[in-house]
Amino acid sequence: MKGISMELYRVFYEIGKAGSLTRAAEKLYVSQPNISAALKALEEQLQTILCVRSKKGISLTYEGQVLFSELEKAFSHIELAETKIEKLVHLESGIISISASDTICNYYLLPYITKFTKRYPGIILQITNRTSLETVELLKSGQVDFGFINLPYEDDMLSITTCCEIHDVLIGGSDYKHLSYTGITNTELSRYPLVMLERKSNSRLCIDDFFEKAGISLSPVLELGSLDLVISFVRNNMGLAFIPLELCGQFIDNDEIFQIELEIPLPARGIGLIELINTVHSNAAKKFKEIILTNQKNI
Fold it and tell me: How many CB atoms sit inside 10 A of residue 213's CB?
């Protein structure tokens, strides 16, 4: 019975609903002889009589009633599934899971997320806040569709696409305003108190690597878990710090926070979208990726 065509079941279902071979034929846009032949073929394969003809039309036997009842449930589920697929295809529903650090999420992704959800309100965005290195692990374990991390980063398992370029700049509070006029050398930096992110942050590791290659050791007086905290501590004159200009430049107000020029600036780095190689994404995930990579903020 597993080899019985779904079309035969569909014909019988329409006969049961219409109570007539003629109306079932009209519904399916086929001839009545074809309907009769399909019904006969199904009865032969199931080895039972499903319908009885009379002057009033078609009536179902007990076996036919049992089959019709189950088919009604089955075709209802199929119709529901088709409706759900249609909504997914037309971006009326769906789920996208992403992971990014607090800084990337708040100062880079937020405009995209806001406009995306306004245009596609039926799509659920699940956002996990993790460091770049933790985001990589979430992606590899299949817990998220995409990750957004601080570059540079290399991994043969991942496809990495640069979304934007960022530059780390040195800042200080009002007690260090004079340095905004004179600037400092890279060597002099080690003489000042520094407020930095924890070393588990990829952006912190990039900064440390740059200065270590120049033979300069940085010893922060404070190591914090978020860039927002770093900026707050700088505002309160707890020390100097590095922030990504393109993401957090708005905090340099030349009143409480000032930019301090370094003799040798740090090299540019970036924010990258990471995904597993050869991943097939949902339509919703594809659209979100497209918007990010084409910089379509006016979606």
Answer: 8
**Residue range 24-47: average pLDDT?**
92
Element (H, E) at 158: strand 158-166
Token pair of 291 as six digits: 């918007």
Residue 98 pLDDT greater than 80, yes or no? yes
pLDDT at 81 over 70: yes
| pLDDT score of 298 | 42
In DSSP terms, 169 is beta-bridged to 243
Q: What are phi and psi of 283, to 5 degrees?
A: -60, -40
What pTM did the predictor assign? 0.79
Average pLDDT, stretch 189-215? Answer: 92
Contact between 273 and 292 under an 8 Å Cβ cutoff? The reply is: yes
Q: How far apart are CA 42 and CA 62, in angstroms?
A: 16
On the CB side of 235, how many CA atoms lie within 13 Å of its CA? 11
CATH architecture of residue range(s) 94-165+270-293:
3-Layer(aba) Sandwich (3.40)
pLDDT tens, position by position, 280-298: 999 999 999 999 988 644 4
Q: Which of 143-147, 186-190, 294-298 has the lowest mean pLDDT?
A: 294-298
* Element housing 203 (H / E): helix 202-213
CATH architecture for residues 6-89: Orthogonal Bundle (1.10)
Q: Return all residues near 183 (Cβ < 8 A) that are at least 6 apart.
A: 260, 261, 262, 263
- Range 21-50 average pLDDT: 92
Kindly state the tokens that stand for 158: 């991942």
Do the domains at 6-89 and 94-165+270-293 have one common CATH topology?
A: no
The SS3 of residue 17 is helix
Domain covering 168-267, topology: D-Maltodextrin-Binding Protein; domain 2 (3.40.190)
Boundaries of every domain in the chain: 6-89, 94-165+270-293, 168-267
What is the per-residue DSSP string for 88-130? HHTTSSEEEEEEE-HHHIIIIIHHHHHHHHHH-TTEEEEEEE-
